[in-house]
């Protein structure tokens, strides 16, 4: 029997700290359910003290998830920890993850605290956290640039105070694999009580080394890796869950550990997170990129046809790639629709939501004869938006675009339930539609990104549009899908406006103590 490598997913917390990746409560619950289906051990569901919305989302996830531990991040102060404790209270298995910075530069310039004060605060934090749960994780923020003697001192103190997992973050992605492994090895050897806790790593990808550093640490004794779907996260992101998991599995000859991950759920998780956050997956991304299993060169194709292992070290189906499967068509009934959704792990809240989704499915089947899993996923994502999160809603849109003429768009929207109409010209049909929407919404936002992606193949494919808007320092992504890309664009724009409208102020956990 190999030792267990705990997979701690922080897509909903560190991943959500990526610009524009903020998710609604319903979206977070969908991601959490997929993580549970994938058998992630610990789901870091957010940072409870960030905002009332973040608190609610963690609380709802704690109520929903039964098979994974649900965790909230908390700075090492009493208020944060009590908020985290309350948020995870309904969880069958709940964890508080508290942290404080330990590098000289962070302690002096950010915290303005002495090393003694930092140790004292960390110890107090563990005490408060232990009032709520005996599963308490401590992180030494910027451990990658901290002094090893100080790390030993603070880790010894928090272990004595009751921390059960010790996390060593390379917060700024500065470490190299050999060096990081040496740090972990020394810590495990030197810290009294090291054998009573799980050693964890949390690596950022600023030098493209997050996965390499995490794996190097596993080889010397780390038994938890913190990672995210698609490597989402602050700046260049975190270690990617799919790469860590598949490296450990594919090189079972090297790693003395195994994960509990159901790898066939990896691609669905990647697609879901990409669709919700609006962060596309690069085609050549390991494991989940569209080309990860495509063999372009003739020599490779020949080799793969003769004997797959000549060029393939993993099987596409093992990570959840399926052939675009024709699942349903125009004549499929409500039951077939419901069954396929259940097979995809999609649960709609009640009959009303199911009926609405089924009506949209019929509409789509009229326009597009072959409906694939990806189409269903895009279709139901609209149904999971709650009415209160839909301040702006598209009722009608029309565009005129002719060679030599300025494109013109007309839209009808509901704004807080009241119908409003507008029309505008633009440099193209999408631009004209956005101008028309803005003449109603007057959001004062700036368009940072517009991208279109075909969900499946063929000219009748649904276009999936991502729109990134910024206003007053806040950045949000909106998504929309439709066989008509102008309508998909309008939906994406409105989705982004709704997020700007509904999301309140949030505190960044790494701002201060
Ligand atoms: O990168 C980091 O140091 C973090 C901590 C809060 C664990 O995200
Ligand atoms: Zn981080």
Characterize this entry briefly.
With 513 residues, the chain is an alpha/beta fold.
Main features:
513 residues, alpha/beta, TIM Barrel, Double Stranded RNA Binding Domain, 3 domains, three-stranded antiparallel β-sheet, 16 helices, 18 strands, 39% helix, binds 3-methyl-2-oxobutanoic acid, binds zinc ion
Tell me what portion of residues adopts beta-strand conformation.
Answer: 15-25%
- The CATH class of the largest domain: Alpha Beta
**Ligand roster:** 3-methyl-2-oxobutanoic acid, zinc ion
Strand tally is 18
Low-confidence stretches: none
Largest beta-sheet characterization: 8 strands, parallel, barrel
Domains (count) = 3
Level of helix content?
25-40%
CATH fold label of the largest domain: TIM Barrel
What CATH architecture label of the largest domain applies?
A: Alpha-Beta Barrel
Cα Rg = 24 Å
Describe this structure in words.
The chain contains 16 helices and 18 strands. The protein is of the alpha/beta class and 513 residues long. It has 3 domains: 3-277, Alpha-Beta Barrel (TIM Barrel), CATH 3.20.20; 334-381, no CATH class; 388-501, Double Stranded RNA Binding Domain. The strands form 5 sheets. The protein has an 8-stranded parallel barrel with strand order 2-3-4-5-6-7-8-9, surrounded by 8 helices. Strands 13-14-15 form a 3-stranded antiparallel β-sheet. Helix 3 (78-87) runs parallel beside helix 5 and helix 15 (429-441) runs parallel beside helix 16 (485-502). The longest helix is centred in the last third of the chain and has 18 residues, at 350-367. The two termini are 42 Å apart. The mean pLDDT is 92.
């Amino acid at each position: 029997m190999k030792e267990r490598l705990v997979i701690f997913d922080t897509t909903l917390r560190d991943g959500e700290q990526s610009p524009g990746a903020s998710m609604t409560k319903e979206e977070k619950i969908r991601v959490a359910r997929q993580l549970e289906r994938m058998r992630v051990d610990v789901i870091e569901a957010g940072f409870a003290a960030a905002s009332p919305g973040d608190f609610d989302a963690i609380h709802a996830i704690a109520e929903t998830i039964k098979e994974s531990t649900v965790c909230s991040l908390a700075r090492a102060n009493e208020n944060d920890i009590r908020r985290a404790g309350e948020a995870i209270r309904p969880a069958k298995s709940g964890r508080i993850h508290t942290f404080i910075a330990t590098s000289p530069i962070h302690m002096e310039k950010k915290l303005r605290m002495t090393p003694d004060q930092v140790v004292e605060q960390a110890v107090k934090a563990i005490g408060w956290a232990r009032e709520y749960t005996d599963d308490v994780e401590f992180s030494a923020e910027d451990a990658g640039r901290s002094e090893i003697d100080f790390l030993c001192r603070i880790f010894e103190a928090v272990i004595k105070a009751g921390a059960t997992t010790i996390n060593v973050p390379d917060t700024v992605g500065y470490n190299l694999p050999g060096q990081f492994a040496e740090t972990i090895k020394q810590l495990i050897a030197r810290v009294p009580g090291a054998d009573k806790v799980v050693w964890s790593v949390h690596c950022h990808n600023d030098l493209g080394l997050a996965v390499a550093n995490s794996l190097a640490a596993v080889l010397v004794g780390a038994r938890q890796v913190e990672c995210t779907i698609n490597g989402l996260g602050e700046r260049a992101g975190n270690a990617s869950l799919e790469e860590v998991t598949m490296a450990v599995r594919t090189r079972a000859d090297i790693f003395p550990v195994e994960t509990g991950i159901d790898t066939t759920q990896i691609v669905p998780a990647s697609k879901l997170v990409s669709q919700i956050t609006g962060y596309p997956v690069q085609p050549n991304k390991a494991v989940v990129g569209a080309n990860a299993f495509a063999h372009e060169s003739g020599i490779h194709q020949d080799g793969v046809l003769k004997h797959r292992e000549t060029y393939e070290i993993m099987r596409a189906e093992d990570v959840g790639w399926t052939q675009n499967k024709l699942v349903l068509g125009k004549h499929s009934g409500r039951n077939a629709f419901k069954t396929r959704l259940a097979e995809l792990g999609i649960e709609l809240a009640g009959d009303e939501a199911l009926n609405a989704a089924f009506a949209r499915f019929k509409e789509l089947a009229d326009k597009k004869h072959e409906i694939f899993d990806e189409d269903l996923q895009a279709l139901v994502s609209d149904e999971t938006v709650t009415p209160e999160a839909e301040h702006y809603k598209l009722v009608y849109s029309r565009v005129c675009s002719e060679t030599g003429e300025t494109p013109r768009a007309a839209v009808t929207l509901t704004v807080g339930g009241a119908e409003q109409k507008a029309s505008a010209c633009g440099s193209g049909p999408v631009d004209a539609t956005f101008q028309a929407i803005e003449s109603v919404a007057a959001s004062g936002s700036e368009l940072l990104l517009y991208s279109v992606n075909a969900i499946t193949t063929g000219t009748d494919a649904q276009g999936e549009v991502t729109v990134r808007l910024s206003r007053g320092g806040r950045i949000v992504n909106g998504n929309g899908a439709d066989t008509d890309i102008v309508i998909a664009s309008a939906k994406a724009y409105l989705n982004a406006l709704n997020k700007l409208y509904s999301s309140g102020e949030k505190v960044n956990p790494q701002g201060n103590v």
